[in-house]
Design goal:
Blueprint: E1 40-42, E2 61-64, E3 72-74, E4 79-85, H1 92-95, E5 97-103, E6 108-115, E7 123-125, E8 130-133, E9 146-153, H2 166-172, E10 173-174, H3 176-183
Antiparallel strand pairs: 1-2, 2-9, 3-8, 4-5, 4-7, 5-6, 6-9, 9-10
The structure holds zinc ion (ZN).
């Protein structure tokens, strides 16, 4: 309405919604598992000297499958699968079928472990794109089907995963669950 009381109208075609997120945080984020499974069954750096005798702490976060099979795993953001390997490989004995998603704008990576399926091929993926199926391949805790997800600073390289101490773990990794939740 103008000051003299005249009413005016504007076509929505000329209006643009302004997102309130800062431009540096643009891009869609998705939970790495379907919503009903998006709850931690084990937290980041949880202390457990039985399961993790070397440094006594869980290096990632776990989402439990609650006994279900065939649960899809999703790319949590637009990025690129920069590394993948199978359960039959040297690292696969521990990590099962696994793949790392690199998210360039944030220079962080997400390592998805213990997949039932072969991971998505190397190359670009979009947020929400399926990159595997939840499983219990490798040394999966108690044999239960779950996603073990590790957050790494930078573009993931498997050599980085040779941790030498708890301090080293803290320096290289972050709480992937807390980080993804902060973006949703
Ligand atoms: Zn785990």
């Amino acid at each position: 309405m103008l000051q003299d009381g005249t009413k005016g109208f504007c076509s929505a075609a000329y209006l643009e919604a302004v997102p309130d997120a800062p431009s540096s945080e643009k891009g869609a984020w998705m939970p790495p598992v379907p919503k009903e499974y998006f709850a931690l069954s084990q937290t980041y750096l949880n202390e457990d000297w039985t399961l993790y005798p070397k440094f006594g702490h869980h290096t990632g976060v776990d989402y439990g499958g609650h006994g279900k099979t065939g649960i899809p795993l999703f790319a949590c953001a637009d990025g690129e699968i920069v590394y993948r390997d199978l359960a039959s490989s040297a690292w696969g004995a521990q990590l099962g079928n696994h793949a790392a998603l690199y998210v360039p704008p944030l220079d962080r990576s997400f390592l998805y472990c213990h997949m039932a399926s072969e991971p998505h091929a190397l190359g670009p993926v979009g947020a929400g794109e399926q990159i595997g199926i939840m499983g219990n391949t490798g040394t999966s805790a108690a044999g239960a089907i779950h996603l073990h997800l590790e957050g790494f600073y930078g573009r993931f390289m498997i050599a980085e995963r040779t941790f030498i101490s708890l301090e080293d773990i803290k320096k290289k990794t972050f709480d992937a669950d807390a980080f993804i939740r902060s973006k949703l």
